[in-house]
Automatic annotation (TrEMBL):
Name this polypeptide is given: DOMON domain-containing protein
Similarity field: Belongs to the copper type II ascorbate-dependent monooxygenase family.
InterPro entries named in the record: Cu2_ascorb_mOase-like_C, Cu2_ascorb_mOase_N, Cu2_ascorb_mOase_N_sf, Cu2_monoox_C, DBH-like, DOH_DOMON, DOMON_domain, PHM/PNGase_F_dom_sf
Species whose genome carries this gene: Trichoplax adhaerens (Trichoplax reptans)
Coiled-coil residues: none
Gene3D superfamilies, sorted: 2.60.120.230, Cellobiose dehydrogenase, cytochrome domain, Copper type II, ascorbate-dependent monooxygenase, N-terminal domain
Record's keyword terms, sorted: Copper, Disulfide bond, Glycoprotein, Membrane, Metal-binding, Monooxygenase, Oxidoreductase, Signal
The keyword Signal appears for this protein: yes
DOMON domain: residues covered: 39-156, 591-693
SMART domains from the UniProt entry: DoH
Location in or out of the cell: Membrane
Cofactor(s) the protein needs: Cu(2+)
């Protein structure tokens, strides 16, 4: 069994990388990356926001022609904006601005909008420097924009025999990069003299012999006796596996450290539930092909070793094995840099978005479908301190259907500039995006994250869940100083959907159920002002915690809906939240027994909703402050063979079957089972007047 190897250090953060390469032009270019896994196609670039120009330098292991292009957010050749360039035997540099209409020789553009700066060949490597405007005004040229850019590349060992006769490439590929929102090398603070490192990596994990696989590893973190600050994280990629390790994400996990040696396929049905839900928890670290290691801004660091700092994590490894080759062993992971020299500010991560539930649903055959998660003003007003928090970076996250994300910002009824936008999101390229200027979120501000999905090729509905074929809508906001607000989600609960659909069916607006699941009516509108933003908040989760996000206690169970029979299905936003559950917790460690509850002050009643991984009887009780069974007020519920539901109010006199109460003071409101999970909703008065309660 592969195990996670922990050397003497750790970190709480996020990053993303491919291979960062230092070039001979380091002083002239701010950013560097390799576009291929073999480090044969190197790219440097810089940009001038005043002149709105970008300058590129390519260094390729060839003495023939070089191709460089910008793909229309597909990573494919058709529709791409391309330049083909070379240096002839006399040292003359050629550069042709072309555009691709298909997978054939790109057409020469009538408007030549790329400009040569210099070029030469040396020791079998061709180096060419050129520039262009962000927006050339040529409809055949693609815009250079913030967010993810798909770059395509190619080269040949020979120069073209003529300027109009260019042979097919020897090598080609594609790489996603963030060209704008990055930290320049000269802005990265130097390492302190006492810096220590710690490695978190898988040990001898055998990559599955299939095209793509997700491997999960449990990691018990080192037990430090005093507070430290993590100041940098970089990836460790096993030599020879640069093309196999696609991305890695590390999550904080509140599960027992006894799982520290767990290492297996993430998609196995035997994966412990306690670890499975950690994959939607607090972000610790992230890496993706095309990104780079992260260095935290000056005066900031992630707290490590403190009382409330994480002790355990789960790493998700995404392996890419297109040849389905067997026997590839991997030891990749993270190297974390930390110091005893505590910086001025602790970094925090605020997780924003939509709670991961099956009610977060996207219809099939959609070219564009929006889902929005809200964080209202009362959450930030309660959890943030004046003057607020400074957001310096974001990490967007959806699964394979996600194509765009936007985080909006509201204050005093007005919309402020968006915090971050990625119009061309690529699941295969996830990294922290540094904001050009820090954004201050003050107490009383509201936030909204909108995720856009494309499901044109999918025959069935896509729902929220852990698998990459399911979906998520999250944004991890990196900020300082750290505040008690760790996550802010909204979602639509089953207890809200059920009566709504019942009403629509009675009105004849929608057909009756087909099997267990019925067709959904779609109501999903993004508000444009704070007033309308607050109207459809639905059941909303606002986690206030003492520095530690207990995600496991707030995670709804994900019900599989792969058999959903519908033509349209999506999250339903309701204007009324009077019946919404206000509080959420998992009663057990394994997240098999989930509880929602709300309090109605007007009639002094409390409603409970329990969701349990069972189809048998369910017990729920209130203990007399001992946590023991004797003298407890207990309800037991079950469904008989005819489908009739029973709820019995009982009281416990010892460690035996509780006695049936003569006064039945709990009212059953709803009861149903789906895929092995029982959902039960009931109500009682806060004071029933019954001495047995």
């Amino acid at each position: 069994m592969a195990r996670l190897l922990l050397a003497p250090t750790y970190a709480v953060v996020l990053l993303a990388l491919i291979i960062t390469v230092k070039s001979e032009t380091t002083g002239q270019h701010e950013f560097h990356a390799s576009l291929d896994e073999d480090l044969k196609y190197l790219l440097d670039w810089t940009f001038d926001n005043n002149k709105k120009t970008m300058t590129f330098t390519v260094r390729v292991k060839t003495t023939g022609w070089i191709g460089f292009g910008i793909s229309p957010y597909t990573g494919k050749m058709p529709g791409s904006d391309i330049v083909i360039m070379w240096v002839d035997n006399n040292g003359k540099v050629y550069l042709q601005d072309r555009f691709a209409e298909s997978r054939s020789l790109p057409v020469l553009d009538s408007s030549q909008d790329y400009y040569i700066v210099s070029g030469y060949e040396r020791n079998g490597t061709t180096t060419i420097k050129f520039w262009r405007k962000f927006n050339t005004g040529d409809p055949k040229d693609l815009l250079l924009d913030t967010g993810t850019t798909r770059l395509i590349w190619a080269y040949n060992a020979q120069d073209p025999p003529a300027t109009t006769n260019i042979q097919i490439h020897d090598k080609m590929g594609a790489r996603s990069l963030n060209l704008f929102e990055r930290m320049p090398e000269n802005d990265k603070p130097s390492m302190p003299s006492d810096v220590q490192t710690h490695e978190c990596r898988v040990l001898n994990a055998t990559i599955p012999a299939r095209k793509t696989a997700y491997w999960c590893v449990g990691s018990k973190l080192p037990d430090l006796t005093s507070k430290h600050h993590i100041i940098k994280i970089e990836p460790i990629i096993t030599k020879g596996n640069q093309g196999r390790v696609h991305h890695m994400i590390m999550y904080e996990c509140p599960a027992s450290p006894d799982w520290h040696d767990y290492s297996a396929d993430c998609d196995t049905e035997n994966m412990p539930i306690a670890l499975r839900y950690c994959r939607s928890g607090a972000l610790v670290a992230g890496w993706a092909v095309g990104g780079e290691g992260i260095t935290f801004p000056k005066d900031t660091g992630f707290s490590l070793g403190g009382k409330d700092d994480p002790k355990f994590t789960v790493i998700e490894m995404h392996y890419d094995n297109p040849e389905e080759k067997a026997g590839i062993v991997d030891n990749s992971g993270f190297r974390i840099y930390y110091t005893k020299q505590i910086r001025k500010y602790d970094i925090g991560v605020l997780t924003l978005g939509h709670l991961i539930t099956a009610t977060m649903a996207i219809p099939e055959k959609q070219s564009s479908w929006n889902i929005t998660g809200y964080c209202p003003q009362f959450c930030t007003d309660r959890a943030l301190y004046n003057p607020g928090i400074n957001i310096f970076g974001v990490f967007f996250h959806t699964h394979l259907a996600g194509i765009a994300l936007s985080t909006r910002h509201f204050r005093n009824g007005k919309e402020l500039p968006a915090i971050a936008v990625n119009k061309h999101y690529d699941f295969n390229y996830q990294e922290i995006v540094y904001l050009k200027n820090n954004v201050i979120v003050s107490p009383g501000d509201s936030l909204a994250l909108t995720c856009t999905y494309q499901t044109k090729s999918r025959p069935n509905v896509t729902v929220g869940g852990q698998a990459t074929t399911d979906e998520m809508c999250l944004n991890y906001l990196f900020y300082y100083p750290r505040a008690p607000l760790a996550a802010c989600f909204s979602y639509t609960g089953y207890d809200t959907l059920t009566p709504y659909f019942g009403k629509l069916m009675k009105q004849g607006v929608m057909p009756p159920p087909s099997g267990i699941i019925c067709q959904f009516q779609i109501l999903n509108q993004l508000p444009t002002t704070l007033t309308t933003l607050l109207a459809p908040l639905l059941p909303l989760l606002c986690f206030e915690i003492p520095l530690r996000p207990y995600f496991k206690t707030l995670q709804e169970s994900s019900i599989t809906m792969s058999k959903l029979e519908s033509s349209t299905c999506a999250v339903l936003l309701l204007v009324s939240v009077t019946t919404a559950a206000n509080f959420h917790v998992s009663i057990d460690e394994d997240l098999n027994y989930l509880l929602d509850w709300s309090y109605n002050e007007q009639d002094s009643t409390m409603e409970f909703t329990v969701r349990i991984k069972t189809t048998g009887w369910v017990g729920f009780g209130i203990s007399p402050y001992t946590g023991q069974m004797p003298e407890s007020d207990v309800v037991i519920r079950w469904v008989d063979s005819n489908g009739k539901a029973y709820l019995q109010d009982r009281f416990a006199t010892g460690w035996i079957l509780p006695t049936l109460d003569s006064s039945q003071d709990y009212t059953l409101l709803s009861d149903f089972k789906v895929n092995g999970t029982t959902t039960l909703k009931f109500r009682r008065k806060c004071n029933t007047g019954n001495p047995k309660i």
